Amino acid sequence: MQLRDAHPLDFAQILALNEESVRFLSPLNPARLAVLHNQAAYHQVLELKGRIIAFLLAFREGAAYDSPNYRWFATRFPQFLYIDRVVVAGSAQGQGIGKLMYRGLFDYASRSGASLITCEFDVDPPNARSQRFHESLGFKALGTQHVGPAKKLVSLQGMSIAAENTA
Fold first, then answer.
1. Residue extents of the structural domains in the chain
2. Cβ-based neighbour number of residue 34 at 10 Å
3. In this structure, what are the phi and psi dihedrals at residue 77, rounded to the nearest 5 degrees?
């Protein structure tokens, strides 16, 4: 397995992974992914035998990102690293891949001086797997908000990198 920077040649596989989990994420198309990739502070993929089995996309404060969840953090915290999405292929779930992806992000956060890592997960409708995963890493609820056309409820989460428990 190789954790590495994402490249435009990876976009087809990233889009397929996103579509596999789109019920928990916002949809992506090639043009939108290109914009997000260019704005991202951190965009990594995990490759196994020439196939991408996971990706993580994150933004620093000051990005021109239009996500309502990112904007929620931007209005409250002067400095943060926002995890927009982390996706692990269904066939690779339950094997520690998510923790491996977060370990790479935590290393990046430490090197880049990001002391607060933020994210969100759905609470209505619930994404219990994501909730358990983030709680196991030490993320704490900072607030909630309704988003999207269906007005789903998300829990906005944060974790001090100093409190990181070495995923």
1. 2-163
2. 13
3. -130, 130
| pLDDT value of position 65 | 94
CA distance 1 to 48: 5
CA contacts within 13 A on the Cβ side of 112 = 18
Strand partners, 45: 4, 55
- Is the backbone peptide bond immediately before 125 cis, with ω within 30 degrees of 0? yes
- The pLDDT of residue 135 is 95
pTM: 0.91
- Token pair, residue 152, equals 């789903």
Q: Can you give the length of the chain in residues?
A: 167
Closest CA relative to residue 85, chosen from 112, 73, 100, 67: 67
Q: What is the 3-state secondary structure (H, E, C) of 92-137?
A: HCCCCHHHHHHHHHHHHHHHHCCCEEEEEEEEECECHHHHHHHHHH
pLDDT beneath 70, residues of the chain: 162-167
Confirm if 142 and 75 have CB atoms less than 8 A apart: no
pLDDT for res 27: 80
**Measured between alpha carbons, how far is 9 from 32 in angstroms, rounded to an integer?**
15
Range 2-163: architecture per CATH: 3-Layer(aba) Sandwich (3.40)
